[in-house]
Amino acid sequence: MFFYTYCISFQGPPSNDMDAKNATFLTKFVLAGLSFQQEWHIHLFLVFLVIYLITIVGNLGLIALICNDPHLHIPMYLFLGSLAFMDAWISSTVTPKILVNFFAKSKMMSISECVIQLFSFAFSATTECFLLAAMAYDRYLAICKPLLYPVIMTNRLCNKLLVLSFLGGLLHSLIHVGFLFRLTFCNYNIIHHFYCDIKPLFRISCTDPSINVLMVFISSGSIQVFTIMTVLVSYTLVLFTILKRKSIQGIRKAFSTCGAHLLSVSLYYGPLLFMYVRPGSTQADDQDMMDSLFYTVIIPLLNPIIYSLRNKKVIDSVAKMLKRNV
């Protein structure tokens, strides 16, 4: 019943086979999201530009810090550096197009640009899900099995988890892009979003998108269930282990180590689940855009701040670098 409702909500503009045959197939789309009055464009442009610059500087700076400090060449920070890279990627996939559209006379986007943006977004978002799960597993081993941690979480295993995360994101994005080519678009090319997301494309398709919806439901649902369950199980075991300890200092250290990751996971999965699990509807376009804006623009800005301010090794590394250079 849930999937039937989910599928029906994505039916595009009504058309039959004869109409589709006689229709003019479209190769360009109009991004109609984030439409504001003209006098607000300069202010919003500056806001998004500042956010984007801080996001790129923060994430790339964190990557440079990890690369240049040998003390940070351990699995925890290799995962963190990869997460920062994906945050910079997902922000660069979406934000530059938002900035251009504030002043562009035509908000047209070719179908090839749309497919590339969709692929880039799906790849970065999915890879980030796997990275968050790998980071949770790493913290479970470090806190629950501290003596075996160096034996289990070797650089080889860390590299395997990183490669599998990137391959999982690549495979998932290729599946959706591949199935997207079975859709045709005619008579209606306005996308009520600020980037080419898969749900708005389903709504304007003049081909029945039921198979595509099923693939999104199965693949995205299974990935989110797997990664969320990995995070929940890992931190449940971590919590039990922490509560067994009688050392206040050990408890504080464990909570300090895991607190930043839990906060990042909560911020990331909240809007993602709300957007892709609940049934879609035309009335939910504005809500979908706000959710998308949060995890494509705001979260990549917050992650380097969260992990830097709550991580003593990162702060010490920044202090050493400043002393060395300044």
From TrEMBL:
<dbReference type="Pfam" id="PF13853">
    <property type="entry name" value="7tm_4"/>
</dbReference>
<comment type="similarity">
    <text>Belongs to the G-protein coupled receptor 1 family.</text>
</comment>
<dbReference type="InterPro" id="IPR017452">
    <property type="entry name" value="GPCR_Rhodpsn_7TM"/>
</dbReference>
<dbReference type="InterPro" id="IPR000725">
    <property type="entry name" value="Olfact_rcpt"/>
</dbReference>
<keyword id="KW-0716">Sensory transduction</keyword>
<feature type="transmembrane region" description="Helical">
    <location>
        <begin position="255"/>
        <end position="277"/>
    </location>
</feature>
<comment type="function">
    <text>Putative odorant or sperm cell receptor.</text>
</comment>
<feature type="transmembrane region" description="Helical">
    <location>
        <begin position="115"/>
        <end position="137"/>
    </location>
</feature>
<dbReference type="InterPro" id="IPR000276">
    <property type="entry name" value="GPCR_Rhodpsn"/>
</dbReference>
<keyword id="KW-0812">Transmembrane</keyword>
<dbReference type="GO" id="GO:0004984">
    <property type="term" value="F:olfactory receptor activity"/>
</dbReference>
<feature type="transmembrane region" description="Helical">
    <location>
        <begin position="157"/>
        <end position="181"/>
    </location>
</feature>
<keyword id="KW-0675">Receptor</keyword>
<keyword id="KW-1133">Transmembrane helix</keyword>
<dbReference type="GO" id="GO:0004930">
    <property type="term" value="F:G protein-coupled receptor activity"/>
</dbReference>
<feature type="transmembrane region" description="Helical">
    <location>
        <begin position="40"/>
        <end position="65"/>
    </location>
</feature>
<keyword id="KW-0807">Transducer</keyword>
<keyword id="KW-0472">Membrane</keyword>
<keyword id="KW-0297">G-protein coupled receptor</keyword>
<feature type="transmembrane region" description="Helical">
    <location>
        <begin position="292"/>
        <end position="309"/>
    </location>
</feature>
<feature type="domain" description="G-protein coupled receptors family 1 profile">
    <location>
        <begin position="58"/>
        <end position="307"/>
    </location>
</feature>
<feature type="transmembrane region" description="Helical">
    <location>
        <begin position="77"/>
        <end position="95"/>
    </location>
</feature>
<dbReference type="GO" id="GO:0005886">
    <property type="term" value="C:plasma membrane"/>
</dbReference>
<keyword id="KW-1003">Cell membrane</keyword>
<keyword id="KW-0552">Olfaction</keyword>
<protein>
    <recommendedName>
        <fullName>Olfactory receptor</fullName>
    </recommendedName>
</protein>
<feature type="transmembrane region" description="Helical">
    <location>
        <begin position="223"/>
        <end position="243"/>
    </location>
</feature>
